[in-house]
């Protein structure tokens, strides 16, 4: 809180800022052209003609391929070969869609499917070591599995992405001997962190691993029922090994949470080993192919070598050593090295949203309801309500994909210096993408009417099976707090000259925006004055930068006032400002998403640029419209602009209509998974009484 007061003092000195803001109804048409962020812009002429330009473009297969390459982040040959091989493997009958499988059948099927993936001739497509060396491939692997079966995808993610990655990233050379057995699922694994009493606040985990000097073993113990491990994927039935997070105690001292490799079941009989109690989490509201379970440990002994010892180790005499002295920083570093799981969840969520949009849009182009009595009924897609529900979601899936690709690349090439940055971007994009996935699938379900309820049409099942992505790998609301906290710390470091904690703000801000914002009255004169501005992604981007700065400033001022005037503790002030905290984190992620997408647009081939620009504009306008109350109450523009925004969204939607099907084709969803009857000739499908 002391840090915050430094920042807030600074603001007090600059409080005249408020009066510097341009009046909402200013007629000032003078766009500050010097304030071009260097991002993709179309010339003014093109902007005005955007809609006509869009209508002249024919998104043929060649252009679709170019868009696909962008979505796949310009894949190399190796990546493409691995994806093609996976798609071939997924043609095996075992992967055929089984929408009506019972609870037990779903469990068995998901297990068999993962086992099949692990034992294909020619060796596994993915090796556990590649989660570190070729993360892009792992993310592709996971996001492709989503199209087939979410339960299989999650089981695979738990086994390779969490269990495998924990052995790889938290262990050392001596643990490499396990890699082959993890690749082939001989060692099928779980990741056991969450406990009954502690989910989001993992630092409260109670499980103990006490070192016994005499036998050189750790004794893993569940001290109370609140310490039972819960929701652990693969733990109810099939998992035989687990990375168990427990408090390492040696010579009477508690060194905090560490990961331990523990065998929990016999690999042949699947019976729990002595000292281990397992229980099933039972039927869930979705994702029932995953056997989530609970675990208790009753003084279970494991060898000293089973401590995954990258971040902390014990010698034979129980003397503890660590490369990171601060226990909190140490634990954060452990979680940061596993952050890949969070990015994968985002990528998987985007796949689910893509599938929903592919189905709902195809149906919308073939289904008719109402119309003139003497003519054809109206296509669903011709209703503006349909366009308004589906096209902004389509745009957001595109924008999020480019954002996720950016984080994947940053993660794969991360250095120690930017590890924290990657961690926070992963938190933000995980939350933003899964929230969007949830909204998209709900809208797609509704847009298909009654057909949206048929399991064979997939959207409803995907919606139920993916719902947990809002919660696992970190609850979204909690993750967004970490993002906002880092923004405050980063902002503070600009003024105190302290070492930068992250580089989160730096992309835009390093261009001098912070300084300009604080000094220059006219920085934000680049407002939305004419309708053509509403079609300029750069002008729109400024609205996002403005909102983020203002929210950041408001949050700092609010926290300071609560601490100083209302005598709250830092934690109380923070908790009572969580609405602002979430708004700020959200504003940050939206701004970064736009910047990253516009960078991609700028690099893209000329013949697809206008379409991608339209998607960006639609995303920007929709986000502004969603937060219109904020923009109006902060006098960013006059109320009349609110109406203009709505009209422009309608126009951009209209301009995108002819491109909607090519744009979902560009997702390149493997054809064997496009089985929803409403994608094709649904009248003939339902003409057969045996079909459903
Ligand atoms: C299907 C499934 C699979 C899972 N798989 C695994 C696994 O394999 N391994 C594993 O270790 N765990 C697993 N989990 C656990 C998962 O990671 C946790 O459920 C998650 O971290 C949330 O913890 P919680 O359930 O205790 O919720 P809580 O932390 O109790 O949160 C409940 C609510 O309170 C809110 N809340 C909490 N703290 C705050 C705060 N500070 N400010 C504002 N709001 C707050 C949250 O936003 C949320 O809405 C799984 C869970 C599920 C449901």
TrEMBL record:
Compartments (UniProt record): Peroxisome
Keywords on record: FAD, Fatty acid metabolism, Flavoprotein, Lipid metabolism, Oxidoreductase, Peroxisome
Acyl-CoA oxidase C-alpha1 domain: residues covered: 337-488
GO biological process, one term: fatty acid beta-oxidation using acyl-CoA oxidase
Annotated Acyl-CoA oxidase/dehydrogenase middle domain residues: 190-300
Residues that bind FAD: 194, 233
Pfam families, sorted: ACOX (PF01756), ACOX_C_alpha1 (PF22924), Acyl-CoA_dh_M (PF02770)
Presence of keyword Lipid metabolism: yes
Protein family per UniProt: Belongs to the acyl-CoA oxidase family.
Name of the featured protein: Acyl-coenzyme A oxidase
Species of provenance: Dictyostelium discoideum (Social amoeba)
